[in-house]
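S1.2 Input.
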Amino acid sequence: MCPPALEAHELFREPIRLACPPGHRLSGRGCVPLTELSGESFIDVPPGWGSRESVDRVLAAHGVVHDVVIEVGDVATVAELVRAGLELALLAPSSAPEPARHRLADLAPHPEFTVSLVTARDRAPSAAAHLIRLIRHAAAEAGAPSTST
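S1.3 Output.
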């Protein structure tokens, strides 16, 4: 949620998906119910990041404890640590490195990651307004669902 002086321009939303280490009991599944994540340990980004907030909120709503045992400030590193066999991770596909995107499982129900551009309400539209249009156009061309504000 933005403070009153700011306006968020939603660009797109995407489901957060599950990354599993090779050989993990959930590895290779097409879809994993959130309840099956109970008792698992995770690698994640620090609290306060948008994807972490989305994940924490949805897991808590479903009674699943998000036991984060490793925190790193880089999504590519999160994906590499999963690939190395350490723990599970919940990732937005657009922020995961390309090779990791093809090994992600869907979650049911799924947390969503929202990508937004934030601008000041008290300033006249400028380059930011043009940038918003360009980013929305590029996101639509990349296959991300378009939204309006």
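S1.4 Remarks. DSSP finds four helices and eight strands in the chain.
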